[in-house]
Amino acid sequence: MSPTAPWWRSAVIYQVYIRSFADGNGDGVGDIAGLRDRLPYLASLGVDALWINPWYASPMADHGYDVADYRRIDPLFGTVAEAEELIEEAHRHGLRIIPDIVPNHTSDRHVWFQEALAAGPGGAARERYIFRAGRGAGGAEPPNDWVSAFGGPAWTRLPDGEWYLHLFAPEQPDLNWDHPEVHEEFASVLRFWFERGVDGFRIDVANGLRKHPDLPDLARHPDPAGADGTDRADGAESADGADGARVRRHRDHPHWDRDEVHAIFRAWRKVAEEFPGDRCFVAEAWTDTPERLAAYVRADGLHTAFNFDFLMSAWDAGELRTVIDDSLASLGAVGAPATWVLSNHDVMRHASRLGRGAARRWTVETGYAPAGPVDRELGVRRARAAALLMLALPGGAYVYQGEELGLPEVEDLPDAVLQDPVWERSGHRERGRDGCRVPLPWSGGAAPFGFSPEGASAGPWLPQPAGWGRYAVAAQDGDPAAVLELYRSALRLRRRHPALGDGGLTWLDAPAGVLALRRDPGFVCVVNLSAEPCPLPEHTAVLLASGRVEDGLLGPDQAVWLATEVRA
User: Fold this and answer.
1) The dihedral of CA 483, 489, 490, 492: what is its sign?
2) Which residue among the candidates 82, 100, 174, 204 is catalytic per the annotation?
3) Is 291 a catalytic residue?
4) Alpha-carbon 404 to chain mean position
5) Phi and psi at residue 530, to the nearest 5°
6) pLDDT tens across 475-503, in order?
7) Are the CB atoms for 166 and 156 separated by under 8 Å?
8) What confidence tens digit (pLDDT) does each residue in 425-459 have?
9) Catalytic residue among 195, 252, 274, 316
10) Across-strand partners of 528?
11) In what order do the strands lie in the sheet containing 155-157?
12) Is-catalytic flag, 274?
């Protein structure tokens, strides 16, 4: 990677789900004070930046993704002044800050929506959102058949008879991006935070902002890939072609991944370029082909986008290689780096997912996560190997808080404590995402495991399992066999090795079920996804391994980084 290339082309970005990271004031909810206290830990881990989930003023119907005021920090987390202090201190530690921005919808408590409610049918304030008359007798039926990503209809009727659109919860009304005031407001919000030193934004539901002007029924547009895979009527993937390759296609969808969305982000790119320091955007954009994803990161658009195909892949060498090749080819064609991710706050933690089979897109119909019993030992073994694969690939990577500790999904939370709106909106059929959001363990053998300070006034907002202490930072610190030390070593090597970060790769010949890739100069990564040990290629040294390497053989579900002769 060129030393003059923008930092975000190779960055490892750590996702902070702030309410579950560290509690500084003892109220049982993570906050800015807790995050500031842990900045030395994050700097020593070896990451380059922090993506912080929404910290804005919010009623918390969806834990901050329902924003009431984009220029205020919610008191649950702190103040704008504390955020500014955090940004400055993070920069002193060599860490950049990337907060979430939520442009698809606001909270129903946002001043704009309150004005819209007061304005009544036909009022100008309603034009900032998507209000429509209903269908059927007396307008008693929704304007169309769209469904919410959280379950149920995507429309709610008001007492005055009109309906408003919400692709997520009713407390999250969708904005109308055909309205100029919406564009002006978000440009202003971006500048507000750029002026306070943030280094970029992660864009929530970047693929959902623009809707078909006629709001047609989904039945007329049986398209794949929604924000979380919703509305997948007949699948994005067709049957395998004659050569065994996956055949995928894009079709016009009335509210996901519409071409009109890119004009918004071209304007945002210009806003970022008003400020020094390589400010950047990362898109959360669910698309049905790598080529559609690449459209978000063209030279005049956003800088990077999450690679969900990698996250969703089965533990299968052929599928992973196809995803890697497709991603690098499509993104490389527009000059953008790939980004790789294994877990986040919306999916089952990969230490549990990989212990039972492949996770696919979350949908109301198919469920949040793979079913069946989990083999925890297998899951952790595969998770360690997957981390070395991810960090060896060209481009950037994301680490979800706690994955560096090997945290599993908490799958036995009592029904009474579940808070994800998916639980209620699905009629208690889907338990939702709370299991990957349980507060982190830092130290000690009992709750709150160092998450809150001594003498805290409240317990953690979600209960931690009794055995959480075995995963605590303090329990793993300095243990060469611990997942934490594997991540520290990998991130340290990744930062120092000239072959790693942005660039290209070359596949090496390998046995069936094995991935072997070379990156120049002098680096090879081998991942054994088969059931049998495999011989290592020629090398001069073992740099790092996810498990023991004996007699030149790499065991099943293991990965290794090798040093090789530097080719002339």
Assistant:
1) positive
2) 204
3) no
4) 16
5) -95, 180
6) 999 999 999 999 999 999 999 999 999 99
7) yes
8) 888 888 999 999 999 999 999 999 999 999 999 99
9) 274
10) 514, 558
11) 131-132, 163-165, 155-157
12) yes
